[in-house]
């Protein structure tokens, strides 16, 4: 049974519609929308719909695997060795408009957003009012995260000459296939940012901490604060980062993992340092399509770490031990992620999406940007002090990014850190990193919009550089 229990509370027809969205459009059909509107009548019904959104987030095309690998294979952390021909075009930054990766992830995220929209827009559902608000708050957070993930993959914000915040973002879908919204256009990046933050503010306003689930598998008001900090940092809004990260860091709700307990973050569920995670157990088993098996599985194992990553760790750092990163066979230039997502035979490890360590480092980044240097150094050093690593004598953006690379390796953050700070793509191993010299702002810093979407919707324009 899933950790996120999916109860059949209403008609078989409704349940079938929830799991059977058309993969060639942003959301299910208008007819399905009407059926769902008629059949989702109670708190229990809406909980089932929202659990369907959480369930879809587990999919390999989203947080079950691909979303995380996109941030590692396009960086100086890792590459695809093409063992099973997976993530080759991603790793080489040579995707085309018919490539399966952008197509599958685009569709899956909009399916998640579709579930969230049903809950957000439902009027007159019966049940406890506070519980209904709390559920709707989770849906707002889900919708915000989905759109941000789409924006950081497909948005043109970092592409030279496309207009920065005025460039093309993604369609911000807020209805479940209602008339007039069947063929949405791409908003600007600024509009996307504003809508994402508005949704997160709604999430925080609606959720009640007394109703939070004790597992980390559901959104909470603190996870919404954490997301606001992450997204604001992406756009260098450090006033917002400091405020929102500070709320989470100073809440007393979360504790940094110690060196001795660090491995538990990835092998146990709902540990004290996790703010939000994707639930996984035996029934959710993704098999060879799991993160564990793309990192080190015998059948797949395509994603291999580069020596440059291994070399940044201090000799006594727990993150450098063979429990976490180990030489790939006889090669002295390749390494394997061992400690994160460790179960290969039956991949049942939860997938942390937000950890307190990330938010502490965002807090340090904001404090530094806002001129609070001493406090920033204190926050930065909380991480190496709990990893048996050497602490920093001074705080710089370079040191914060270095610690983020150490702490968040294999979790999907590296590409975005490179992009949001205006860096060229680091080329540390020309033999294995097949993308060659890629300068900041080149077209392939963004994914292509799926050709199927462009063909089906004349309001959707293709990204610069893709034909």
From TrEMBL:
InterPro entries: SusD-like_N, SusD_RagB_dom, TPR-like_helical_dom_sf. It comes from the Bacteria. Residues 67-231 form the SusD-like N-terminal domain. GO terms for cellular component: cell outer membrane. Pfam families: SusD-like_3, SusD_RagB. It is found in: Cell outer membrane. The keyword Zinc-finger does not apply. The keyword Chaperone does not apply. SUPFAM superfamilies: TPR-like. Residues 1-25 form the signal peptide. Keywords: Cell outer membrane, Membrane, Signal. Residues 349-466 form the RagB/SusD domain. Belongs to the SusD family. This is RagB/SusD family nutrient uptake outer membrane protein.
């Amino acid at each position: 049974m899933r950790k996120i229990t999916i109860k059949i509370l209403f008609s078989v027809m409704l349940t079938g519609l929830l799991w059977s969205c058309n993969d060639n459009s942003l959301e299910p059909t208008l007819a399905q929308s009407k059926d769902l509107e008629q059949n989702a009548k109670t708190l229990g019904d809406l909980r089932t719909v929202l659990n369907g959104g959480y369930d879809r987030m587990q999919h390999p095309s989203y947080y079950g695997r691909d979303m995380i690998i996109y941030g590692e294979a396009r960086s100086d952390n890792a590459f695809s060795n093409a063992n099973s021909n997976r993530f080759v075009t991603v790793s080489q930054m040579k995707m085309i408009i018919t490539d399966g990766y952008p197509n599958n992830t685009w569709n899956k995220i909009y399916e998640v957003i579709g579930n969230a929209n049903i809950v957000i827009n439902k009027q007159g559902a019966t049940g406890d009012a506070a519980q209904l608000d709390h559920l709707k708050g989770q849906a707002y957070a889900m919708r915000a995260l989905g759109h941000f993930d789409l924006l950081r993959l497909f948005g043109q914000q970092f592409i030279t000459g496309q207009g920065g915040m005025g460039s093309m973002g993604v369609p911000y879908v807020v209805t479940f296939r209602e008339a007039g919204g069947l063929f949405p256009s791409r908003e600007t990046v600024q509009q996307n940012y504003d809508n994402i933050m508005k949704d997160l503010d709604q999430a925080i306003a609606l959720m009640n901490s007394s109703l939070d689930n004790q597992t980390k598998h559901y959104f909470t008001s603190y996870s919404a604060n954490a997301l606001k900090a992450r997204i604001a940092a992406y756009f260098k809004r450090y006033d917002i980062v400091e405020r929102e990260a500070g709320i989470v860091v100073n809440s007393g709700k979360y504790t940094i993992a110690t060196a001795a307990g660090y491995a538990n973050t990835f092998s146990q569920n709902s540990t004290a340092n996790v703010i939000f995670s994707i639930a996984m157990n035996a029934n959710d088993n993704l098999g060879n399509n799991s993160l564990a098996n793309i990192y080190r599985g015998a059948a797949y194992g395509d994603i291999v770490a580069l020596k440059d990553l291994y070399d940044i760790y201090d000799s006594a750092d727990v993150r450098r031990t063979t429990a976490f990163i180990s030489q790939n066979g006889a090669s002295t230039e390749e390494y394997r992620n061992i400690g994160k997502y460790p179960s290969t035979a039956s991949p049942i490890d939860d997938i942390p999406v937000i950890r307190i360590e990330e938010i502490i480092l965002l807090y340090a980044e904001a404090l530094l940007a806002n001129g609070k240097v001493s406090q920033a150094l204190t926050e930065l050093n909380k991480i190496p002090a709990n990893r048996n690593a050497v602490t920093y004598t001074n705080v710089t953006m370079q040191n914060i990014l270095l610690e983020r690379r150490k702490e968040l390796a294999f979790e999907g953050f590296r590409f975005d850190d490179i992009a949001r700070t205006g860096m060229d793509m680091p080329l540390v191993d020309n033999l294995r990193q097949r993308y060659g010299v890629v300068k900041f702002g080149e077209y392939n810093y963004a994914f292509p919009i799926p050709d199927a979407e462009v063909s089906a919707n004349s309001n959707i324009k293709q990204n610069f550089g893709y034909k």
